[in-house]
Write a structure and sequence with these properties.
Layout lengths: L9 E3 L2 E3 L3 E3 L8 H10 L3 E3 L16 E3 L4 E3 L8 H15 L5 E6 L4 H11 L6 E5 L6 H4 L7 H14 L7 E5 L6 H10 L4 E4 L3 E4 L14 E5 L4 H14 L5 E4 L5 H10 L3 E4 L2 H5 L3 H15 L32
Parallel strand pairs: 3-4, 3-14, 4-7, 7-8, 8-9, 9-10, 10-13, 13-14
Antiparallel strand pairs: 1-2, 5-6, 6-12, 11-12
């Protein structure tokens, strides 16, 4: 083990973050004290809960359950609306900027043009980044098919948001969905439309039934899968996104529960790593635990900086590929 403590700082969108851990959207809302705690425990950036054009109550309970392999939630994008969110974001940035921790605003809307309107409003808070949530899987009754479902819709939203914040030096991150035929194709489309970074991934749609009544457990019937069950899906999505967009920063999110999970996410192609449902499984101190485990893993492997971990899964494979045809027999 190295005697030197590994350097956890990482460059993301030309911003030096103190660690590669990012609080995912929706976990601790936009409560400034909780965003401060996430920063103090080891996050290099924190993402506020998604806000929309108007206040929204979300779905009634039960809206989240632990089904054994992960969580299933259908919160329904409950939020106070963008005008209320602006003040919360401004307060969070004032508290976290001295620590070097970035504040990410997250937005959603019902139409591509409306995404631009919400982005223009939230930009008044001057967040460090804006994350565009085009991929929430449990609000189709309200908003129809997610914009992340096809390349054209995803690109249209991206274009409106980029136009809305033009000249304000606020990079735009687009959050992708896992349940699409080709996440790489959609990633390329939003990057071509101007996205500065990508977040992969949102939750995966799922359903849990009560075996006695035969009815869905959640009031919304279906919901989004997160937690350990999502990790292999997220790793594959991040890997495919990195292959499709080799020069675009990526927030790798989904099922990160410990330090080794964070290592794997970076190796798959993430630039930084989102942490969310781990707080449910490991308690309020989850981020601190993951940060410590991550740093200890790096020290044990004599890895001095985060950059040495990134994209390792894209290196040449360790195992030789079997020949496609057998070699010709040699003469006796």
């Amino acid at each position: 083990m190295s005697d030197l403590s590994p350097n956890l700082s990482v460059n993301f969108l030309d911003r030096e973050l103190p660690t590669p851990l990012v609080l995912a959207s929706g976990i601790w809302g936009t409560t400034v004290s909780l965003l401060e705690r996430a920063a103090a425990d080891g996050c290099g950036a924190v993402t506020a809960k998604s806000c929309g054009p108007e206040p929204r109550h979300g779905h009634v309970n039960p809206s989240c359950i632990d089904w054994g392999g992960g969580l299933l939630n259908a919160i329904g994008l409950a939020n106070p609306g963008v005008e209320e969110e602006i003040g919360l974001l401004q307060e969070a940035k004032a508290k976290l900027q001295p620590r070097g921790v970035a504040v990410i605003a997250s937005i959603f809307a019902g139409t591509a043009a409306e995404f631009g309107d919400v982005a223009r409003s939230v930009a008044r808070a001057q967040p460090d980044f804006i994350e565009v949530n085009i991929s929430c899987p449990n609000v189709e009754d309200s908003f129809g098919e997610p914009f992340a479902a096809n390349a054209e819709s995803a690109a249209a939203v991206t274009g409106y948001v980029k136009s809305a914040v033009a000249g304000q030096d606020i990079p735009v991150i687009v959050k992708l969905a896992p349940n699409v035929p080709s996440i790489g194709r959609i990633a390329q489309a939003v990057v071509n439309a101007g996205a500065d970074a990508l977040c992969a991934i949102n939750t995966m749609p799922g359903l849990v039934l009560d075996p006695y009544s035969g009815q869905p457990v959640l009031a919304n019937r279906s919901g989004g899968i997160s937690g350990p069950a999502l990790k292999p899906i997220a790793l594959k999505a991040v890997y495919d996104t990195r292959k499709a967009c080799p020069h675009t920063p990526i927030i790798g999110t989904g099922g990160v529960s410990n330090g080794q999970d964070a290592v794997e996410m970076l190796m798959a192609g993430a630039t930084v790593v989102g942490v969310g449902s781990a707080i449910y499984y490991r308690g309020a101190g989850a981020i601190r635990l993951i940060r410590t485990e991550f740093q200890e893993w790096m020290a044990a492997q004599n890895i001095s900086c985060v950059a040495d971990l990134q994209d390792r899964a894209h290196n040449e494979p360790l195992y030789a590929t079997a020949p496609s045809t057998p070699p010709a027999p040699t003469a006796a």
